[in-house]
Structure formats: C-alpha cells, structure tokens
C-alpha cells in the first residue's frame, strides 16, 4: 500500500449502532433483568467513548454481562448489515477505488465486523479488532487479552506497531479515535457525528464531519453526491410538525428554526420549510441565490410569489395534507431531481441511476436552448446515458445523465450558457 491512509472506526461510525449493545439486546431478550443489564452495558460503552473509564474495564464489564454465544453472533451480523451508516452505504464507490488504503480499526470484534465491511472492498488484512474466546459449548467467556486493541490506548499502540508511511486520516466518534491525533499518529482527526455527537470528542477534532460525504468533500475524494447535504441549510419557519423536520434532519440536512424569512437568511438558505400562513417578501426572495426549493404546508400562492420562484429556479411544493409528504418531495428533489407534484415547475419523475453522473440545468424557455446545451456536451466529448426535458411557458428543466468521468470545464461551460437560471451536479 502507498499514498494516504484512512483509519475508520466501526461502532457508531461505519455502522449506526454500538454492536455490543445490539448483541446484548439479542442475547438477553428473554432475561428477566434485561432492561437493567442493557443500561449497564450502554453506560460502560459511553464512559469509555467519552474517556471517563479505561477501555479494558469497559470491555471486560460488557463481555461479562452479554451471556452471548455463536448463534447470537450470526443474528447480530444480519442485523448490522442493515445498520451501515447511510453516508458510508452510498459511497461504496470510494471503497472500490481506495479500499487498499482503508483500515477498519475498532475495539469491537472481528467476528461481527469482518462480514459487515468485506462487501465494501476493504481487505480482510486491513481489519483490526478484538476476538472473542469461547467455551466448549460456543458461549462467549472472554476475549484475547494479548490483542493491543483490548487495552487502554489500544488504537495508539496498534498504529505505532503498523508504522504506516504517508499521511493518515482518522474518522471516528470516540475518545480512542481522538487519541490517535493526541499522540501524533495521524495528520487529522475527523469527529463523525452522523449517528451520535460526543461533545467531549467533537470539541477536540480537527473537523466535525456530520457524514462521510463531508469527509470526502473536504479531502477532494470521489463522492456519491456532489455536495454534502449537511452543508445545505434547511430553514424551518413557523408551525411545522416535528415529523417533517425529523425526516429532513435524518436525511442529512442542516436544520435551523426561525420565526420568519429575514434578510440574514436570504443568502444562506438552501431549503425553506414553512408553516401555513407564513410569507416570504418578494424582495428577499429575489436575494435568495442559494435557495433551491420551498416546502409550504398549505396553499402557498398568496404567500410566496410563484412567478419569482420559477424565474429563479426555485421549486415549490405545497398544498399537501401531510407535512412529512412535503418533506419527502423536498428530499426527492434535492437527492434525485424529481419535481413531481411541484406547484410551479414542470412535473418530472426520474429513475435513480448507478455508475453515472446526473446534471441539472434550469433555463429560460427560449428557442435553441437545448441545442446549445447539447453542443456543450459534444464540444467536451461527453456521451449521454439519458436525458429528460420538461418545459412550461417560463422555463425548461433538463436532466442529463452521463457515464464516465468529465473535465471540470464541462461544468463551467454549462453554467455559462445564455439563459441559464440554475445549474448543479447532483451526483
């Protein structure tokens, strides 16, 4: 191996959960004191992750409480494969190209980590974790205490032994991950907060990364989406039910609540989710250069100028009874380009594509615009995998899927086409 190395934690990072906590819920499901034992195990996990208890004390305490066997481990693996963090799951392409330089380093156990990460093109020999010890009946009775990862500061000891050349970047949610930076063994530590944010860890990080997309973006690495959703501000205004906000937050958007659409938000909001009766001043609407979509819980026509929105390439979804439905339409537009059930845009439902880039171009509906767009693709020698176009009297909405790599000049040329309103790379 050569080049940069990426040291990634497993529990609450590569997966959404703490595996030993989940194993306890499987192995102790019929135990009369299970709720008390669950709490004890979770407390031991959190104390170690926050640096309040030595890792070995935490590990020993948890393993003793498990009452688990090999059959329980098989059930756990099936469960964990469905619990891979969303931003890792959608970036399999990165691992396909960089898997040789990825190390999974965890205080967890190979028995459940290896089968979960191998499908991500990570080499088996790059998986560093503990191993269980069993009795003759297959019950877990302990762990290999000679493994440095079973000790306090185990990740530090392991990386010292590996002595990798080149720059090393660490991604994780816990104190043991930060220790790699504290002891000078990695160039940068990224606190991963998609699943849990431990403030004592995050405040020491070089960078807080709410998703793996963010890590790839700031390091200029291949990413499944062109722009991390955590960098898109969703401004929630007025009376909006919690389930709609929760849906967009879970999808990865940054959430901010406000009483009204003020001038200070015009320059930064990418999404507005607005309760019934709320209004947006037309002057401020024209200043909202980053605004991509508005979700309105009611009929927006008297409160939000649809003509200005269309002119600026802002997609409006409204008049939908369920608040969560509005949130889902917003997410589908940002994630896939769908404008189905939009109040002001040509309605377009799109298939999801794999192994392709999707480009969105919104332009004034004038003669010859499609010819100019396709001439840019031809001049840049780009083959089109698929193209979708819908228009209304004001605008044309064209989505182009291209396979293979492209030069950044293509994007510059598409943005410069006369009558372009908005352009973005979706993924």
Query: How many separate helices?
Result: 19
How many strand segments? 17
Specify the structural class.
alpha/beta
Instruction: Name the CATH homologous superfamily of the largest domain.
Output: HAD superfamily/HAD-like
| Uncertain runs | none
Distance between the termini: 29 Å
- Give a quick account of the main beta sheet: strands, pairing sense, barrel closure: 6 strands, parallel
Lateral strand order in the biggest sheet: 3-2-1-6-7-8
| Assembly type | single chain
What is the level 1 CATH name of the largest domain? Answer: Alpha Beta
- Rg, Cα atoms, Å: 25 Å
Residue-averaged pLDDT:
93
Principal-axis shape: elongated
Pfam family, one: HAD
EC number: 3.1.3.3
Keywords: Amino-acid biosynthesis, Coiled coil, Hydrolase, Magnesium, Metal-binding, Serine biosynthesis
Organism: Chitinophaga tropicalis
Keywords, please?
single chain; Rossmann fold; Alpha-Beta Plaits; elongated; HAD_sf; coiled coil; metal-binding; magnesium ion binding; EC 3.1.3.3
Task: Write structural notes for this entry.
There is one protein chain. The chain folds into three domains: 5-218, Rossmann fold (3-Layer(aba) Sandwich); 229-336, Rossmann fold (3-Layer(aba) Sandwich); 357-425, ACT domain (Alpha-Beta Plaits). Helix content is 37%, strand content 21%. It contains 19 helices and 17 strands. The protein has helices at residues 10-14, 19-27, 34-49, 55-66, 70-81, 86-89, 92-98, 110-117, 154-162, 175-182, 199-202, 212-218, 242-250, 263-266, 282-287, 306-311, 323-336, 369-379, 408-416, and strands at 5-8, 102-109, 127-130, 132-134, 140-143, 168-172, 188-192, 207-209, 233-237, 254-258, 269-274, 293-296, 315-318, 357-364, 384-391, 395-402, 420-425. The longest helix has 16 residues, at 34-49. It starts with a strand and ends with a strand.
């Amino acid at each position: 191996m050569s080049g940069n190395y990426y040291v990634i934690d497993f529990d609450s990072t590569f997966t959404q959960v703490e595996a030993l906590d989940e194993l306890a819920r499987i192995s102790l499901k019929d135990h009369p004191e299970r709720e008390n034992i669950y709490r004890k195990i979770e407390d031991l996990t959190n104390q170690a992750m926050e640096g309040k208890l030595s890792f070995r004390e935490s590990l020993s305490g948890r393993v003793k409480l498990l009452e688990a066997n090999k059959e329980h481990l098989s059930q756990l693996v099936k469960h964990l494969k469905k619990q891979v963090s969303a931003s890792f799951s959608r970036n399999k392409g990165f691992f396909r190209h960089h898997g040789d330089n990825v190390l999974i380093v965890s205080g967890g156990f190979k028995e459940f980590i290896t089968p979960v990460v191998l499908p991500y093109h990570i080499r088996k020999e790059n998986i560093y974790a503990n191993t269980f010890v069993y009795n003759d009946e297959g019950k877990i009775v302990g762990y290999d205490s000679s493994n440095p990862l079973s000790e306090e500061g185990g990740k530090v000891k392991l990386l010292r032994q590996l002595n990798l050349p080149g720059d090393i970047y660490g991604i994780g949610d816990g104190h043991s991950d930060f220790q790699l930076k504290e002891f000078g063994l990695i160039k940068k530590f990224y606190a991963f907060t998609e699943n849990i944010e431990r403030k004592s860890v995050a405040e020491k990080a070089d960078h807080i990364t709410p998703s793996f997309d963010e890590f790839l973006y700031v390091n200029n690495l291949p990413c499944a989406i062109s722009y991390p959703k955590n960098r898109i501000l969703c401004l929630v205004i007025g009376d909006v039910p919690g389930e709609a906000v929760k849906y967009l937050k879970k999808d990865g958007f940054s959430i901010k609540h406000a009483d009204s659409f003020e001038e200070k938000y015009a320059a930064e909001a990418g999404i507005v989710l607005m309760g019934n009766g709320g209004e947006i001043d037309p002057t401020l609407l024209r200043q909202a250069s980053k605004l991509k979509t508005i979700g309105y819980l009611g009929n927006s026509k008297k409160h939000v100028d649809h003509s200005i929105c269309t002119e600026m390439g802002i997609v409006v979804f409204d008049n939908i009874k369920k608040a969560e439905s509005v949130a889902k339409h917003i997410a589908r537009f940002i994630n896939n380009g769908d404008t189905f059930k939009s109040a002001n845009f040509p309605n377009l439902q799109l298939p999801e594509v794999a192994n392709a880039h999707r480009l969105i171009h919104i332009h004034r509906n004038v003669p010859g615009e499609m010819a100019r767009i396709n001439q840019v693709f031809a001049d840049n020698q780009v083959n089109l995998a698929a193209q979708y176009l819908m228009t209304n009297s004001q605008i044309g909405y064209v989505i182009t899927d291209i396979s293979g790599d492209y030069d950044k000049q293509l994007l510059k040329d598409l943005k410069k086409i006369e009558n372009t309103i908005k352009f973005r790379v979706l993924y």
